[in-house]
What does this fold into?
Amino acid sequence: MAVPKPRVISLSKREGQTFGFFLRVEQGEEGHLIRALEMGGPAELAGLKDGDRIIRVNGTFVDNLEHSQVADLVRKSGMTVTFHVLGEEAYYLAIKNGINLADPQSHLTQVQPTMNGVSAPAPKLRLCLLQKASGGFGFSVKSTKGDQGIFMMDVVPGGVADKAGVKLGDRLVEINKENVEGATHDQVVEKIKASGNSVMFLLVDEETDKYYKNKCIKLGARLATVKYLPQKPRIVEMTKGPSGYGYFLKEDTKKTGHYVGEIDRGSPAEKAGLREMDRVVAVEGEEVDHFTHEQLVEKIRQFGNRCCLLVVDAETDQLYKKGDVSPLLYWEEMRSSQPKPSQPKPEPSPVPAPEPTPVPVPAASPAPAVPPPAEESYKPKMCHLKKTAAGYGFHLNGIQGVHGQYIKEVVKGGVADKAGLEDDDIVVEVNGVNVEKGTHDEVVKMIRGSGDTLVLLVADKVTYDYLKAKGIAITPQLLENEQRPEPCVPVLAQEEQTQRAATPPAQTRARTPSVSSASSSDSVDVRL
It folds into this structure.
């Protein structure tokens, strides 16, 4: 029987702001209910739904607590709070099947929490490789009687541990990919001694430790940054020349994985930094360990005249295996810290039958000089979005008193990202209506009024500025082979919408911003 997985949602608010919902208990209903979500408030933006049940507050199980106790936990959280929630149907299904929602195992596999509609960057643990010098490792470990955990102390400034990324007060999670959170002081010391002159630590500082404990997420190397490791994978970007990329792929019967064979002198592969016996980890960010030789060759061919490989040499490969982490962590960190690159779309085309091993991957030569973009290349984008439980996955930003709205905080892999929206895109039309002169509140209202579907005409800043300088109106007619979408018509007539907006439902009017009985004796609520 599948155990319902709570959603992990973090909310942040500003001074004087509420989280934008009522917390209620109601006669005939079980659990602590989310009600009266404020449109555009932190709770709604994060994807909380009317009728959701709060299971945990900052990691504390609350389903068995009094209403006032839960409200106090939320209030005492300050400006940020993290909830584990279940939808109404999932909650009652769990109760019917006798599932123990207090069991931590029911939510240890949760993904990164959603914060106000945007996946917030989570703090990272640290993987640190220490290689002993004549003066030792340059640290000591400490444990406190009655407290669980081994902590790093006496970190020598400029010493081995300090240079490797170890910080005073760090808690030790793993030694050479073995979890030691339950180990004694003596056991930890013995494991470090047994490591010889080189040891790999997985460490967590106090704030990061609290962050994951609040979310009941089990610590592991998958949550770590690899920026402190001395060897790095390499991102190799190549452009094909007349003779192809200029390297061979080969299989090694004694090793698993795909390796680079002979490289032509002066080829694009050599100039891009590819080396013989590099192991190919990923192609355009997709891991290829499970690919057959022919599938990998075909994958590279699909990207036409350009291709990006993630590779590791033997030393780096061994280092990452020692830490039990994938080199793709490096790719993700590098890509998240840089502007999103424009990547060519795969060009599907008939491919001849696979050649015998080793298969030469068509190589490339230096790319010809790229002329300035023609006027035809300055095009807006038409983005069609369908809202999910996490919302649209972007923020709409504007400057007070200045016309113009632009896109910010596009969630990677979210609705907006998949629709083609990017940070700093300027919004030109909402559902077929030009909003360039609209205020922020007006545009937000239009987006909210569109229901679960939204059509945006946007342009990146370079395109927007260019077309405006040329006096060219930005309309869907600039898009080739694309028709102007029909404006989304709200279900309610405008008069009825206005009337409903001005007259909140009776249930909402009856609520008071305190923990007390509401107008009816069958419910208790609190504004949060």
Q: What stands out?
A: The longest strand covers residues 244-251.
